[in-house]
Amino acid sequence: MADTNAIREHMEVIGADGVHIGTVDGVEGNRIKLTRADSGMGAHAGHHHYVPMSLVAEVEGDKVRLSATADVAVTFEEEADGSAQRL
Predict the structure, then answer these.
(1) Please, what are the averages of pLDDT over each run of 10 residues along the chain (87 residues)?
(2) What is the DSSP annotation of 31-55?
């Protein structure tokens, strides 16, 4: 299990394939809060999304690597209220 206590603001969040998913804005409970700049386009623009800590495979240096590839990991992103992100 990864040391999720080592996750800090401004760390890059990447998928298992090394693809950028977002940047850590903070940790709230059992979720990583991503910066608004990485929120996507359209209805998803301009607000925070969250990634469950259960996806964290490794924390090393300034990167948080997830256990899922980027295209799969984004399907686990949640809105602030915990609801699933509508793609």
Answers:
(1) 87 95 94 81 65 95 95 83 59
(2) EEEEPGGGS-SGGGTTS--EEEGGG
